[in-house]
Design brief:
It is built from four helices and five strands. It has a single domain, classed as HybD-like (Rossmann fold, 3-Layer(aba) Sandwich).
Length: about 190
């Protein structure tokens, strides 16, 4: 069985650097990727993303702005913790639930509800400089787009290696724990 990878650009293009994931997806859409890789711009459509993820992907790579306290333009690759959390209420009870929003914890909760919790979920995040109204990326975030494309391409190659022989191709460079992948900072 061939491996299936979904690359999802997420974010709001009207909030400056929050449009980072959408721009990376736009560039990847013209990269001539294999047919087992789907690239899509999900914008702020979290429910659409959740239902697509439930369609049997082996790996999902979400690309988004991610405030982690670093310098603007800093890229991080994080593996989402898919273990069910007993201390959190089901997504339907969450007051933050918005069918048009992109809350990653809600998207992952919907996956669990749909019984589709097996996909490996990676997040390629970029530290934003500004999330104010505007449709342009800041200079440091715009400069990070090409590197993010390279990172995603590497993760796709890694996913293909994982699916081809069943081994963890990243075992030698995945760092400590499940929150860090491919040598990028946590």
């Amino acid at each position: 069985m061939a491996v299936r990878v979904l690359v999802a650009g997420v974010g709001n293009i009207f909030l400056g650097d929050d449009g980072f994931g959408v721009e990376v997806a736009r560039r990847l859409a013209t990269a001539g990727l294999p047919d087992w890789v789907q690239v899509a711009d999900y914008g702020i459509s979290g429910m659409h993303l959740a239902y697509d993820l439930a369609d049997g992907y082996d790996t999902a790579i979400l690309v988004d702005a991610a405030q982690r306290g670093g310098e603007p333009g800093t890229l991080t690759v994080i593996e989402a913790d898919r273990a069910p959390r007993q201390d959190k209420p089901p997504f339907a009870e969450s007051r933050l639930f918005d069918a048009h929003g992109m809350q990653p914890d809600v998207v992952l909760g919907v996956l669990d509800m749909l019984g589709a919790g097996s996909a490996r979920v990676l997040v390629v995040g970029c530290e934003p400089a500004s999330l104010d109204y505007g449709m342009e990326l800041s200079e440091p975030v715009a400069k990070a787009v090409d590197e993010a494309v390279r990172v995603v391409m590497g993760l796709i190659t890694e996913a293909a290696g994982d699916g081809a022989d069943g081994a963890d191709a990243a075992a030698g460079n995945s760092g400590e724990g499940a929150s860090h992948v491919s040598g990028y900072p946590r």
